[in-house]
Amino acid sequence: MIAELGHFALILALGVSALQALLPLYGWRRGDARALAAGRSGALTQFALVALAYVCLSLCFVNGDFSVAYVAANSHTDLPLMYRLTAVWGGHEGSLLLWMLMLSGWTFAVSLFNRNLPDYITALVLAVLGAIGVGFLLFMLTTSNPFDRHFPVPLEGRDLNPLLQDPGMIIHPPMLYMGYVGFSVAFAFAIAALLSGKLDTAWARWTRPWTTAAWMFLTLGITLGSWWAYHELGWGGWWFWDPVENASFMPWLVGTALIHSLAVTEKRGLLKSWTVLLALLAFALSLLGTFLVRSGVLVSVHAFATDPARGVFILAFLTVVIGSALGLYAWRARIFVTTGELQFLSREGLLLFNNVFLVSAAAAVLLGTLYPLAIEALNLGKLSVGPPYFNAVFVPLTAPLAVLIGLAACVPWKNSRGRDVLRLMRGPAAFAVVCAIGLPFLLQGRNTLVAVAGTLLATWAMATAGQELLRRARSHRVLAQGLASIPRGVWGMSLAHFGIGVFVLGVTHVSTFGAERDVRLAPGQEAALGAYTYRLIEVRGLPGPNYDADVGTIEVSKDGQRLAVLQPEKRLYRAQRNVMTEAAVDHTLLRDLYVALGEPFNNGDWSVRLYYRPTMRLVWLGGVLAFLGGLLAMSDRRYRLAQAAARAPDPSASAPA
Amino acid sequence: MRYAIPAALLAVLVALFAIGLTRDPSKIPSPLIGQPAPAFTLPTLDGTTLSASELRGPLLVNFWASWCTPCLQEHPLLMDLSRQGVTIIGIDYKDAPDAASQWLARHGNPFRRIARDEAGRAGLDWGVYGVPETFLIDASGVIRHKHIGPLTRAVWDAELAPLLKVQP
Fold first, then answer.
1. Residue A513 to residue A597: CA distance in whole angstroms
2. B98: Cβ–Cβ under 8 A, 6 or more apart, which residues?
């Protein structure tokens, strides 16, 4: 009964979203105020219905209703309650429902917070979001209905994929989806601008907080994904250039470019058509990510679980959405041509460079991800493109970005004199040089050329971010007052840039100074890795709620002093008979000691993987700082003021152009 | 004109994807095609043993398990084929014998004989990615065809039946 209620709610939501897509458009063309306003109530109704469907599916999981095929495929009577709730998005159908819930949530938020935009802009934005909703709901109802019943009803479910039974998995996909779906708002604003022909400072100011919001969720989602892979996959790596990871990274790169070009469009009224294109591309890549992961076009030995009908639907949907958006762009973008001058040595000039590098990096990742597909489509065989390609292409394309981060902080808008810039750069540059030479010695006891270069870039970005804040604060007599007067947007930007510096520092040191070893240990034996000694105490069996584990106890010491006792696990999940590795990590800010159990030998010995990962935490700390920076920037007072200003009647904004 | 470049690039991508979608991801070419079936000697469900040298076809070797849902999907077809006289050897992959017996009792047994590959060793030698996978063995014990994923009537008619020269 609950499943049918959910199914019914989804069907109703499809009807509502169709109305939400069509009525405001009609109202806009005909000047009908009532039809124009329909988007808002549509957004509320759609959100309520999709939320109802989501609650219904969650209830099916909590009750263990195995007559619902999706529940039977992803749950089990022994599955703990927490994982039953997260199992809702553990498979294809449910993750689509989560996608849809977020889309309707974002739509509802737009209708709620943008009460002060001109009516026709809100209406167009909601109509575009409604149209996307129609596509996704149709997809779910025709090919991937999570509420489908099946017969005979199995006595027991197949259990949630053990890889997903991890705390990191609880929040990683929702964050990632919030980011993916969030770019739909920027997309809708871009379409509204193309349709209405109105793209001014106010448009950029409306679009910015939404874009930043989507970006920060995506940032956190990717960071969590990396953290999860590190703990759960047992290979001690934090990024694998896997197609699924790339799918989330491409929208991030383009979204980052969009955030920066929006700043140029707002402050200087330049790069308008470019900004619109980026807004379209960020969402296009989000959809592409969904397509790649869901259709089985790429990879995967488990691809036979995917249904080709789904692939065809997503491809058609992708073609319609992105095709019509880019078609509209080809037709209308001409009207956004601006004649303003753009100096190289100005903030907007450097931001343009930033955009070039970010978009090239995204293109390089896209190429690497799709190249195997192209080779196969052209009958040239099967191949996969691995980390060597990505590292070789990606690092040179992104290293200049770290230089630009610092430069842009020293260079004002419009134009500037080289001498002033040099004067501002001096301090941070000297600081970075000292750090580049000294810091690796201080932290790792040695230095290499790569470490010098990486540390230089990292500390340069961190120092200039700090300098910008100090410079602004000094303009007041009291430092605290000065700091308080800095707008949150600037705080957010500096924090995010500082975070990127922390991230680069972490990546440089972990990839230069990390060490690893595969050893065979009998209980009581020990192995050395760098300055650390790992001793295997014992391995014993321990049953968990829905798995049986071998738990190893490994003592790590340095200079005869015990640092940590680690308990890595090897779990055999009973329902799917899957073996999972749970690595154990002892971490401080500056180093991780990481241990994973390999395979047992017949005589009771175990193969054990030992890792020493310096500054591993900084990689994720950088991501979290960037997320917090986005959060701060989004809450800037200016955006609320902009809304208040828009509330005042503005004759130029009330009629569709 | 330059504003149309993104749309043109999209068209190329879509064409690429469309071609990509017509490819069946389950057609990963097996190096075993044309090779003799990899050797194994495994216990069977009824307590005897089965070794690869006994596989003289034409027959099908089907890797399956009681925990595998796609196996249930192809199961009616296997039942049908066995009734029409096709010899099917089952290899119960990473499965508990009790669970396998119960599964067969409940859904019916299409298999002439069933070997137990509890550790998945034979599966490894045969290059099995997951279950179900079906191999066609000819009269001299050579693998002629491999199908990944559940068998369907269409796959049977188009790919396996012609090779087996049996008209069901």
1. 23
2. none
Which chain A residue is nearest to residue B132, measuring alpha carbons? A304
Residues in A closer than 8 angstroms to B14, CB to CB, are 315, 318-319, 323
Residue A508 is predicted with a pLDDT of: 93
- Which of B21, B63, B118, B134 is most worth mutating to test chain A (most A CB atoms within 10 A of its CB)? B21
DSSP structure class, residue B85: T
pLDDT at A91: 82
- The DSSP annotation for A353-404 comes to HHHHHHHHHHHHHHHHHHHHHHHHHTTS------HHHHHHHHHHHHHHHHHH
Q: How many CB pairs under 8 A join A and B?
A: 83
Residue B115: helix, strand or coil by DSSP?
strand
Question: Above 60 in pLDDT, residue A238?
Answer: yes
Q: What is the pLDDT of residues B145-165, one digit of tens each?
A: 888 888 888 888 888 888 876
Element (H, E) at A551: strand A547-558
Is B3 close to A323, i.e. CB distance below 8 A? no
- Tell me the ipTM for this assembly: 0.75
Q: Chain B residue with minimal CA distance to A579?
A: B94
Condensed to tens digits (0 to 9), the pLDDT of residues A377-434 reads 666 655 656 777 888 888 888 899 999 988 888 888 887 788 888 888 899 999 999 9
Mark yes or no for CB contact A304/B130 under 8 Å. Answer: yes
